[in-house]
């Protein structure tokens, strides 16, 4: 599996890594942690959102994201399931960091504001994930 593929699977969410721990975390560990975390929600979120399984798998396995509205709602469902949204249905840095999942804090702090003013929650999750995906690509060695 290519390093870029593994890193892109991080896009489902955000594991906050302390600077001292970054060298200990490998893409494989991140992938395993994320897969374990979201596994209980995949089927439910596919059914609730009506997302195409192939598109959801392309997003999770290859980091390919499309503007399909059902895929955006699938991403929202996953984000809610892992605790990214606060009680006001907002993506907030503190709530995402408290969830303790996948990607450096700097990426979370950069990407949350990109989705802040979007009222459509599916589009908000899509925008956040797309931003994280872009930043993960930039992190590639």
Automatic annotation (TrEMBL):
For this UniProt record, the keywords arranged alphabetically read as follows:
Signal
* An example molecular function term from Gene Ontology annotations: odorant binding
The record's section on CDD domains has:
PBP_GOBP
The signal peptide stretch is 1-18
Protein's UniProt keywords contain Disulfide bond: no
Check the record and name the Gene3D superfamilies matching this protein: Pheromone/general odorant binding protein domain (1.10.238.20)
InterPro entries recorded:
PBP/GOBP, PBP_GOBP_sf
The protein, known as = Uncharacterized protein
Native organism is Pyrocoelia pectoralis
């Amino acid at each position: 599996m290519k390093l870029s593929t593994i890193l892109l699977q991080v896009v489902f969410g955000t594991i906050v890594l302390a600077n001292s721990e970054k060298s200990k975390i490998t893409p494989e560990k991140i992938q395993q942690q994320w897969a374990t975390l979201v596994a209980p929600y995949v089927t439910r979120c596919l059914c609730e959102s009506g997302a195409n399984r192939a598109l959801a798998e392309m997003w999770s396995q290859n980091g390919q994201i499309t503007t399909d509205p059902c895929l955006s709602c699938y991403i929202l469902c996953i984000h809610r399931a892992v605790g990214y949204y606060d009680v006001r249905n907002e993506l907030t840095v503190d709530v995402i960091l408290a969830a303790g999942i996948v990607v450096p804090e700097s990426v979370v702090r950069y990407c949350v504001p990109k989705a802040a003013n979007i009222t459509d929650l599916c589009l908000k999750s899509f925008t956040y994930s797309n931003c994280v995906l872009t930043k993960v690509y930039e992190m590639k060695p």
